[in-house]
């Protein structure tokens, strides 16, 4: 009897329940055999007991979180079913040769490996760690074509991306998740800085523009933020634009990458043209799976269902006009960008006050001019009449929210990045600390202090109504201009840092 599909189904089911209980009855109901038969066949086909397999998979996934997150080790252990941290230490060391703390301190490499054809999942990749590789590709000695007859492939364990206070810019979050999954230990702050997102503020002079925050509006070339990020990560990449391809071209691009274990970054798929991650496909590519920042919003979730591990599943991805771009990620990893190059670009963003996009009308302001324009518009009573309808008021609020994110989140990560620059370059460490402190003050003024004035960031309607009060809006403008002054001082220090780095 051909047991490949049974083994594959067991592996998928286990992978999706590593943080929850999976009873033997659930296993029987889902697989269609008795629990005893499942255990016997699994051991016979893989030369490993089912219980040992589950333990190895928990250890591998826990190791992934240790390296690619800052969560407490005790919390990670608890998530994966170890109620006593001591038992987790013993199991982890028995499987890897490292204690959890030494594994993290040594920054052991963790990414993904193929479990069996059509299934990838987290695994420990460092050579000197005891093998936790579980390669089931030889089960039943089937050909790849036979194994792929169901027309699907899934990358299990790709980190979820969503709007959070510590990661509110979609592309850097998507790129970090993908690179972590591919085994690269890379920091969100580094991508924010390298892309330029940590230093940008954009404000359209002609109207209240919901596109101010779009990462493709940092530079006149809309793809430059992506290109700079991949260059800084030492990865090659490839773009496929909708205007240069049809649906079949998109499907072929996605299938080739997913089959090789590489997630694909896309725009759209669900909702607006923000970046998301494609983590798998079904029905030969007619259905796509992945993470999307808008997948839980009812206005965008028509026809969307969800996989057991949370991935969206959609058949209507091509019909979404926001599905405009696919980005592949190269397997080979090269050297990172030089700090002086990232800071030189940062200084240019912090200095350039006018951006003109090809084919667009009006002027977009940046740098110090964008702060001035934002404060001016928020203070203008003519922009906030008492009889303004709520949708128009919400539009203005959303533009303010976006500006808060660009300054608040951006300058926070600018500070975090500069702190790491100081560690790598001790001769400019004090200047890096000073610039970081100023960026943190700018971040606090634009985010936390404005939230104190206007209310919680997520309370849209109550915040919007606050904007009808002139004194509230003027208080907001004061904080925007305070952030502007902090940034101007930080910019001067970055110029000084660059002079020193040019001679090192």
Task: Describe the 3D structure.
There is one protein chain. By secondary structure, the protein is α+β, with helices and mostly antiparallel strands. The protein has three domains: 147 residues, Orthogonal Bundle (Arc Repressor Mutant, subunit A); 110 residues, Cathepsin B, Chain A; 163 residues, no CATH class. The protein has 18 helices and 13 strands. The longest helix has 35 residues. It is globular and about 75 Å long.
Describe this protein with a few key phrases.
single chain, 504 residues, alpha+beta, Cathepsin B, Chain A, ten-stranded mixed beta sheet, three-stranded antiparallel beta sheet, 13 strands, globular
Query: Helix/strand-derived class?
Result: alpha+beta
Largest sheet properties? 10 strands, mixed
Average per-residue pLDDT, rounded, comes to 91
Whole-number total of structural domains: 3
Low-confidence stretches: 137-147
Which bin fits the share of residues in helices?
40-55%
What's the number of helices? 18
Computed CA radius of gyration, to the nearest angstrom: 25 Å
**What amount of the residues lies in strands?**
5-15%
Categorize the overall geometry: globular
- Intertermini distance: 66 Å
- Count the E strands: 13
List the SSEs and their pairings.
Layout: H1 4-16, H2 24-31, H3 35-46, H4 50-68, H5 73-79, H6 85-96, H7 100-105, E1 110-116, E2 119-124, H8 144-147, E3 153-155, H9 170-181, H10 188-195, E4 203-204, H11 224-233, E5 237-241, H12 247-259, E6 264-267, E7 275-282, E8 287-291, E9 305-306, E10 312-314, E11 325-329, H13 339-351, E12 354-355, E13 364-365, H14 367-379, H15 390-424, H16 429-454, H17 460-466, H18 470-501
Parallel strand pairs: 2-3
Antiparallel strand pairs: 1-2, 3-7, 4-13, 5-11, 6-7, 6-11, 7-8, 8-10, 9-10, 12-13
Helix pairs in contact: 9-10, 10-11, 10-15, 13-18, 14-18, 15-16, 15-17, 16-18
């Amino acid at each position: 009897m051909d047991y490949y599909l049974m083994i594959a189904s067991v592996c998928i089911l286990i992978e999706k329940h590593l943080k929850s209980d999976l009873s033997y009855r659930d296993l029987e109901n889902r697989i269609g055999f008795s629990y005893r038969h499942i255990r016997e066949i699994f051991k016979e086909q893989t030369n490993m007991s089912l219980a040992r397999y589950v333990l190895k998979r928990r250890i591998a996934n826990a190791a992934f979180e240790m390296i690619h997150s800052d969560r407490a080790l005790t919390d990670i252990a608890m998530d994966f079913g170890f109620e006593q941290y001591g038992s987790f230490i013993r199991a982890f060391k028995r499987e890897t040769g490292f204690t959890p703390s030494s594994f993290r301190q040594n920054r052991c490499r963790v990414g993904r490996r193929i479990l069996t054809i059509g299934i990838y999942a987290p695994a420990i990749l460092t050579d000197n760690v005891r093998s936790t590789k579980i390669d089931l590709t030889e089960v039943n000695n089937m050909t790849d074509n036979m194994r792929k007859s169901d027309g699907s492939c899934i990358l299990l364990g790709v980190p979820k991306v969503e709007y959070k206070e510590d990661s509110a810019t979609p592309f850097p979050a998507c790129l970090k998740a993908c690179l972590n999954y591919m085994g690269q230990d890379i920091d969100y702050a580094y991508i924010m800085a390298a892309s330029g997102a940590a230093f940008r503020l954009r404000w359209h002079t002609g109207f209240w523009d919901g596109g101010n925050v779009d990462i493709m509006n940092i530079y006149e070339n809309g793809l430059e933020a992506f290109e700079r990020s991949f260059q800084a990560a030492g990865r090659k990449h490839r773009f496929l634009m909708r205007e240069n391809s049809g649906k079949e071209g998109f499907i072929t691009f996605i299938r080739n990458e997913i089959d090789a274990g590489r997630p694909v970054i896309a725009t759209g798929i669900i909702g607006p043209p923000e970046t998301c991650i494609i983590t798998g496909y079904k029905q030969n590519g007619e259905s796509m799976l992945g993470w999307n920042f808008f997948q839980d919003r009812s206005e965008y979730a028509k026809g969307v269902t969800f996989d057991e591990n949370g991935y969206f599943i959609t058949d209507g991805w091509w019909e979404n006009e926001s599905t405009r771009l696919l980005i592949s990620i190269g397997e080979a990893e090269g050297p990172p960008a030089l700090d002086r190059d990232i800071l030189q670009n940062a200084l240019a963003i912090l200095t350039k006050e006018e951006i003109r996009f090809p084919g667009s009308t009006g002027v977009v302001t940046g740098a110090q001019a964008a702060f001035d324009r934002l404060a001016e518009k928020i203070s203008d009573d003519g922009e906030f009449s008492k009889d303004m309808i709520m949708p128009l008021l919400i539009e203005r609020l959303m533009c303010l929210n976006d500006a808060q994110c660009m300054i608040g989140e951006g300058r926070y990560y600018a500070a975090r990045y500069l702190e790491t620059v100081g560690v790598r370059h001790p001769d400019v460490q004090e200047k890096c600390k000073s610039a970081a402190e100023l960026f943190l003050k700018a971040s606090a003024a634009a985010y936390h202090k404005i939230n104190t004035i206007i209310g919680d960031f997520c309370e849209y309607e109550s915040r919007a109504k606050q904007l009808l009060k002139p004194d509230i809006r003027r208080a907001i403008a004061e904080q925007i201009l305070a952030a502007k002054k902090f940034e101007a001082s930080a910019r001067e220090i970055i110029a000084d840092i660059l002079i020193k780095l040019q001679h090192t």
